[in-house]
Design brief:
By secondary structure, the chain is α/β, with parallel strands linked by helices. The chain is built from 15 helices and twelve strands.
Length: 382
């Protein structure tokens, strides 16, 4: 681990300059210093600080000026079958920098999306030129750190980076078609969302929920970020009533299937058909299905036959609703406040590669930024 160079003190800066000079004299390209490694899982190569059992060889790549925090994100994503197939930690960038690897991975056909953790951009003009070209073919998702005065000070001591004014970064990156990630923890899930989901062709979102409070909170998250949760038409609401929604349960949007009572008033088949009717209508552009996934793991349920039956029903229902996404080509998001370690149903779905989302804000951001990406691509076609 090559720390203690330009990010540390004046003596470290001299060592770094001497190292770069030595590499240039001998025609060697240099990654770092102050880096923890790199990997290409598709070439069975791992020279990083991340244990292999956390790594999932996906079609995403990551270019980061910091390393260990991203290893934490990889560990968190591994159990959800999320991760990156390529990773480069650029550190102090005394020779090769983020722009070099953005250009390289942008030309790699197997890479479908690029994640970046940036504290600074040392060659902004070239970076933006490369980013414009790459973002026309694949999404670039950037989390920009060091946006406050204290954060900028931390960036300087972390990688020797001069962080710069956040409003200038935001404007320049957006013009290049880059997606700005609102939270570091969202980098990998957002990357998967943008490369795996159908395009978000409009702003309208439908919600089916097991709890009215979740529905109200989701509406606030979505509309607060610029999307719309429109009231469904009388015709569509009437069709939902025909499929078993009782008068006490709202069909306006959010659609409160919890108040209707799955297995009492609504069969599994009818809930799936309701989701189909909503998605096939011309009234919405995406669907959120939220609230299934009971707490407890299989070892806690072995002696409870009724719980086991409901577990099977939950998994089947969420699986069949998620399958509508591919069939109808509109985003379908499965939400549950429990993690894979707290709910057997959520664990089972994630092991199948079906993404679930815990935080309402993450659900909203994924849809908002998917819509932003689609608008950018649409402008290119004009």
């Amino acid at each position: 681990m090559s720390a203690g160079f330009g990010e540390a003190d004046e003596e470290g800066k001299v060592r770094e300059e001497n190292l770069a000079r030595l590499a240039r004299v001998h025609g060697i390209r240099l990654l770092g210093p102050n880096v923890s490694g790199t990997f290409n899982l598709h070439a069975s190569f791992n020279a990083s600080g991340s244990p292999a059992h956390y790594l999932v060889p996906t079609n995403l790549a990551a270019i980061c000026q910091g390393g260990y925090a991203f290893y934490d994100l990889l560990a968190a994503g591994g159990s959800r079958k999320m991760g990156v197939g390529w990773f480069v930690h650029t550190g102090n960038e005394c020779d090769l920098g983020v722009t070099d690897f953005l250009e390289l991975l942008g030309e790699e056909e197997e890479v479908q999306g690029i994640l970046m953790y940036l504290e600074t951009i040392r060659d902004p003009r070239r970076f933006l030129d490369v980013a414009r070209r790459v973002s026309e073919r694949k999404p670039i998702i950037v989390f920009k750190a060091g946006t406050t005065s204290a954060g900028a000070r931390a960036a300087l001591s972390h990688t020797g980076a001069l962080a710069g004014r956040p409003e200038i970064y935001r404007g320049a990156l957006a013009q290049a078609g880059i997606i700005l990630c609102p939270a570091m923890e969202l980098l990998i899930p957002l990357g998967h969302f943008l490369v795996e989901r159908p395009p978000m062709k409009g702003d309208r979102v439908a919600i089916m929920t097991m709890g009215g409070s979740w529905g109200v909170s989701l509406v606030d998250e979505l509309e607060g970020k610029g999307l719309m949760v429109p009231e469904l038409s009388p015709k569509l609401q009437g069709r939902l009533r025909e499929l078993g929604m009782p008068r006490r349960a709202s069909t306006k949007n959010p659609v409160d299937i919890g108040a209707a009572g799955i297995s009492y008033h609504l069969s599994l088949e009818n809930v799936v058909q309701m989701a189909r009717e909503i998605l096939e209508s011309e009234e919405v552009d995406a669907l959120i299905f939220h609230g299934l996934g009971r707490p407890g793991m299989a070892k806690d349920q072995a002696s409870d036959r009724a719980r086991g039956i409901f577990l099977s029903l939950e998994v089947r229902l969420m699986r069949e609703i998620q399958a509508l996404e591919k069939e109808i080509q509109k985003p379908v998001v499965i939400g549950c406040c429990l993690s894979p370690w707290e709910s057997q149903a959520v664990w089972d779905l994630n092991q199948e590669g079906i993404r679930t989302y815990q935080r309402l804000s993450d659900i909203a951001w994924n849809l908002v930024l998917a819509r932003q990406r689609e608008k950018f691509l649409s402008r290119l076609l004009r």
